[in-house]
Amino acid sequence: MIKTPQLRVDQEVIAGLVTEGARVLDLGCGDGLLLEHLIHQKNAHGAGVEISHEGVHACIARGLPVLQGDIDQGLSDHHDNAFDYVILSHTLQAVHRPRFVVQEMLRVGRKIIVSFPNFGHWKIRLGLTLGGRMPRTPVLPHAWYDTPNIHMCTILDFQDLCKSLEIQILDQIPLAASGHRPKGPIKRQFANYLVPLAVANLFAPMAVFLLERGPD
Question: CB of 42 within 8 A of CB of 16?
Fold first, then answer.
């Protein structure tokens, strides 16, 4: 796989989870960078959904198939199991109905991939505790009055949501404090080992989850 330098670190991890030639739907695809990478580097049969005019125009300029739509209203344009993967990259915290959006993703996709900033990261906790103000980090750079994020959650919160929806967690990947995935098999195993111990909830600024519907 040819690495695209412009991809955000969670997008690089997501691209690594998608299999060659898969059918992919990228929700909240923004300017289409990840979708373009998947189509060109993974031979994916992809499409995007984006709410902003600017994002849709950027996708069209890249020659990408994109629909303008509000994913909070559902994915009624798509049949059950229409895609191998449905992706929600750094968008979960910005939707009004995150639980419903995840359910819709599971309806139209065989597997879903969700990445989000972890509000349980220690810098956020420390900033709020000591500073007394809403924290701003490289991952969450917006001031409280102009942030697009309305439903922040932690890694543990998202695990709870998966449990309540009877979703099977196939992989959960905490990203290292530097914003990069831990390098080397030992460090990766250690990072994954931290998740059930809830330590990753303290030290990972972002996380990526690979999910599928639980057994009926």
Answer: no
Burial of 105 (0-12, 13-18, 19+ CB in 10 A): buried
Helix (H, G, I), strand (E, B) or coil at 41: helix
Q: Which two tokens stand for residue 187?
A: 């460090």
d(CA 42, CA 22): 8
d(CA 8, CA 54): 19
The H or E element spanning position 187 is helix 185-194
The sign of the CA dihedral 33, 15, 71, 121 is negative
In the predicted model, is pLDDT for residue 5 greater than 90?
Answer: no
pTM: 0.89
Helix (H) or strand (E) holding 86: strand 83-89
- For 34-60, how does the pLDDT look when each residue is reduced to its tens digit (9 = 90+)? 999 999 999 999 999 999 999 999 999
**Dihedral over alpha carbons 49, 45, 174, 2 (to 10 degrees):** -120
